[in-house]
Amino acid sequence: MEIRITSHLDRKIRAGSSAVSKQFYPQALSEPIFSSSDPLEEEALYSPIKGLVHKYPNRVLWKVTYRCAAHCQMCTRIRQIGTPEGDLSDSDIEAGIEYLRVHPEVDDVILSGGDPLYATASSLKIIAGLATVSSVKVVRIGTRLPVHAPRSMASQQVQNVFRTLKDNASHFISYILVHTNHPDELDNEVLGSLVALRKSGFPVLSQSVFLRDVNDDPDTLERLFKRLYYAGITSYYIYRCDYVKGLEHYVCDLEREREIMTILQARMSGVALPMYVADVAGGVGKIPVPLGFWEVQDPMHCKDYNGKDVRL
Ligand SMILES: *Cc1c(COP(=O)(O)O)cnc(C)c1O
Ligand code: SF4
Fold this sequence. Notes:
The protein has helices at 7-14, 18-24, 42-46, 90-101, 120-130, 145-148, 156-167, 188-199, 218-230, 254-267; strands spanning 52-56, 59-63, 108-112, 138-143, 173-179, 204-209, 234-239, 275-279, 286-288, 301-303, 309-311. It has ten helices and eleven strands. By secondary structure, the protein is of the alpha/beta class. Strands 1-2-3-4-5-6-7-8-9 form a nine-stranded mixed β-sheet. It has a two-stranded antiparallel sheet with strand order 10-11. Helix 8 (188-199) links the parallel strand 5 (173-179) and strand 6 (204-209). 41% of the residues are buried. The longest helix is centred in the last third of the chain and has 14 residues, at 254-267. Pyridoxal-5'-phosphate binds next to strand 1 and strand 2. The site of iron/sulfur cluster has 11 residues, from loops.
């Protein structure tokens, strides 16, 4: 994956934010070396149509593009980001809509990628199509554009997407789902763009990932989650970093992650605290990791949603 950065992020790095720098400049690999670039088998097992990932019965992830305003070096899809292979043609989009029409058990569609707000033409077509599928009740827009380039949130193309979501409010509710990892990312401009979305009627959620040497300490995460909480943004997941080839440096010690979340559980409101989950290779579902309140003999060993034994 190429290095790609915005002027907004570059300013933060120049101002001395190593937490931002470490997310956008490649870090040295460290042991163990992971073997798979797609350990969750999104393409191999769960993609019935180009762009769609259908893993849970009622939810579909729709990868609108593989392009993003900036390239996060810890991205779980580093195998794809920045390539044109994820661009969707009109017939790809029609095929996706048709798939959802014949799968009425899917009520929740997550536009993801890549960044759907960085491919607004495709996103607009998909949203218009989703409005014709009566079983779709929720559309979530997974984006990092507010963090990468908050000023782009005001662009006509991006505002068009939000207007179209609102125009279809009788068909589905729309959530905006951002990705934040460190309080340095949340300056007034970034928070302002998120609060503006919330005030215009969208629920705004945030998800984060544990990153070694970036946010693996309780004070940093407390500041991150509280800054979001004070702005009315709900943190809903913090992930264990996936075991993707190339992300070795970012994966934290599991015991340290559990300890941090155990400390934060005591320090913070349940409203402000995300659920700590791991997406385990060979299993289905984001599995909640047990905190330190319980005696657990082997937290690396768990069962997935289907009861299958899996190991972290
Ligand atoms: C995370 C994820 C979802 C959405 O999960 P929620 O718990 O509903 O947020 C859907 N599909 C895939 C493939 C995912 O990885
Ligand atoms: S914005 Fe999201 S999809 Fe794009 S590189 Fe960053 S983490 Fe990956």
